[in-house]
Amino acid sequence: MEEDEARSTPASLETPQVGWREVLTREHLPRLLVLCLAVWLHAANTMLAATTLPEAVGEIGGLRLISWAFSLYLMGSIVAATAVSALVAGHGLRRTMLISTLVYTLGCVVCASAPLMPILLAGRAVQGLGGGALVALVFVAQDRFFPNRLVPRIMACISVVWMTSALCGPLIGGAFATIGLWRVAFWAFAAQGLVLAVAVHPLLVRAGPDVVVESRPIPGGRLALVAGAILAISSAGAVGSAAAASVLLVAGCLCLWLFAARDVVAAPRTRLIPRHATDWSHPVGCGFAMTFMLCLCMMAFVVYGPILLIRLYDLTPLEAGYVVVTESLGWTVGAFLLSGLAPAQEGRLFRIGSAVLLAGIAAQAWFVPHGPLWLVVVSAFLGHAGFGMMFGYIIKRVIANAAGEDRGRAGAMLSSTQQTAFALGAALTGIIAHALGFEHLTRPDEFRTAAIWLFAGFLPAAALGNVIAWRFSALLAKTTASPSPRPDP
Rounded distance, CA 326 to CA 394, Å? Predict the structure, then answer.
């Protein structure tokens, strides 16, 4: 079978370049559509909530709780992504995707019918569990259902879906909220969840019945540490005191460290993260470290870009929002244009991509406060393009260098690593802003000074990410990954 042949082919012997014809075949296209729909449900719903919840507050109250709608969704997403490898091992890929889809749909139904804000918050947490699991399953499924050489092309398609959701999510939510039908927006996504649930089985079945490897206990204690870490980190970005935020941030990072420390010594059958995940001398650990450090640096413009653009350039909220969307556009363009490189070029791409990201953040530190606006747009585009152009290849190489069943763990952990880094980056951005007294600024010169530090504060992390990217490239040059065959899902 094609998948089996691809899995047993050493990376060094792969086809030099991959064309779109290899992806858009009768064999691969239906599966790709399923993965794209799964990503759409998670990504578009995240953006949709930003424009529907203000209208919901007007009907059911709970304005002081609105930030928890995002924190609980994020917590559910990361916890579910962390647990996905164990769920797939115990229940099979298709069944886990079906269950995750139904959980997501249930969350949409709870949100759509919520009479009070606490019930809506519960629905958001359930949505996060389902949506986070779906995205992590996409990372796992692309390795199961597609040859490793196609991963960058698959990720390019997924990046297009993510950018489309960034553009359409606020519009969809805003349209429903404007006419007073915010509940219908959640019902619409519940209906789409049912479409995915119906499509999962017939479109993913190609190799016989789903395979359940073994029943495995879900390590609730370790997942509770992850949940506590994300809640603490998310709260750190929202509290008004820099001291309190720092305490929450340290507590969150400590919980993450305890989770990793406990997982490393856990029995092999209950581990959630792959071997070598914390070993920077191995391609797997180095790939995770690079992903974490570079994603950590990319949140300042997302969090504070809109208000800076409004105050410094007199843009409307809608105009500022679409300037921020250029970051998603940069990620997508980078992923799409460079998704067909030959394996020999990939090491150089990691070095170039990380350097482009560093240059983009440095450019934002100068051009966001000083202008002109078109260079603000260019710098935002570059920052995300640098990471987007190489993310598909990071996934490809990390999974290829993970051994045996650790492939599933590696795919799922890449998703949770990325989301955790985004959460921590947003929290650090909030701490920097609070330390600068951002909420009390009034004059343009004060906003310019704050803008410099909101971006320059992440340059050391971006520089470290570049160092790790060079190490990752050097490790790959010494390693020939020979993926071992796995049972089809």
Answer: 22
